[in-house]
Amino acid sequence: MSVEREGSVEAAKRASPAHVLPDSSIDLLDGTVGDTLRQTAQRFADRPALMWSGERGIETMSYRELLDETERVAAWLLDRAAPGDRIGIWSRNSVDWVLLEYGCALAGMVVASWNPAWTDHECRHALELTEPALLFADRDTRGVPLLDRAVAIAGQDRTFPLDGLRELVSESRPGALPQVQPADLFLIQFTSGTTGRAKGASLSHRAALNGGWIRARLADGDETDVWLNPIPLNHMGGAISMVLGAMTSGACYVVMHRFDVGEYLRMMRECGATRIGGVPTMILSLADHPDWTPGSFHVRSIGSGGAQVPRPLIERLMREFEAPVIVTYAQSECPFISATVATDSAQAISETVGRPAPHVEVKICGLQDGGTLAVGETGEVCVRAPVVMEGYYRMPEATAQTIDADGFLHTGDLGSLDERGYLRISGRAREVIIRGGENIYPAEVEDCLLEHPGIHAAAVVPIPDERWGQVVGAAVQLREGHSPTTQELEEHAGTRIAHFKVPRHWLFVDSFPLTPSGKIRKVEVEEMFAEG
Fold it and tell me: Which has the least CB within 10 A, 46, 58, 392, 516?
């Protein structure tokens, strides 16, 4: 090929639009979560639906038993609330959490889960936004009871102990359940906003169900699988990818209260886990544990996401398990965007988030004019798919800013598409810190810090961390006459925001580098941290 011809090919490649149209290689499910549970219970009645560590060792619930239990939960709910009502869940992972999720689906009610790490201030905002008819509380991931706090926040009349759910509903007799439609609201998934206020992504039965279904199908999951991934159920990855993903394929989901590396390895052995996963920090902890003996497990795939997975770890996992690593990319606003597949190389898995999932349309748009960029150029990742949220619950302005007139979700992520359709994520158009899979928005932390009487200005930035990927750093400019210590500032923040959002790295500055319009130059603040 001549140099001239070679140059023209490269120019054509650069001019190709960064736009991947949806494919239909996987059929979508056209039903509700409850419909699909009934169908799965009919097909796989005696197969295990749930496993967990109980008083008698590993306990199991079949799909027939799961449907019976959740129909009682639905009947109990319908005696106290109406279809369309929101049901709050404030707890660590538990079997009762899963039963309540399915009970809401059968009753036509909406799951509105709260992060168990939230402060009372954060909970009150969620309460005012969603106005749940009932609130169920148990414990946080440390085992600290939440029920008394829930009663103080929401009131005695509508607050119930989640760990007593099965006893509460034991006398309920299922009757006629309401007709639920695929377009009906199923889940309000809370996600932090750049304004500092939590937003609730509204997901229909169709969106949530197919988010889990596509996840299972891309992994070639079936009814012989046992899924183990302790990602929190108050996250989309837990309530949708794990719970609904396992159910749509007839597989068994293993419930763990929280991630504990020793317990994880024990459950892998005793439950016979075939599909394992977690954010990279979890996987790293497993691989570094003295009881890590991959040859004793029969794993078919290892799933991860929420942060970049290091290539050496990917290569080690693939070598020791002789199983693929599958990296997924999703948001609360869209439970499945892209994924790598079993045949992808370690380089592709570590450097990209795979190719768009079936039925998902992705394009890269310019930040200034919103036009579609060319292959290889970096811009905002925009997504259109049947699994995209309906909008932010009771926040029409925020919805209009996020979903455009053509139905594209503007993810706020910066990325690029290559000529093969692989998606690379390079940063955030809307600032966010990702700490071990948890999204932390600097504006929320900055608002909290500015409530301290000694702080004049604050800039929150990500600090690289080997274990968590990123942690929170805060540069603060103090008011004259004030000299709070970092401990005092951390204690102040800890009463207002979840513990994982509290800054642990601090800089005290006399002034900030500013743009001509007076905004703090965050890139230069990050450089200040890097320099010392």
Answer: 516
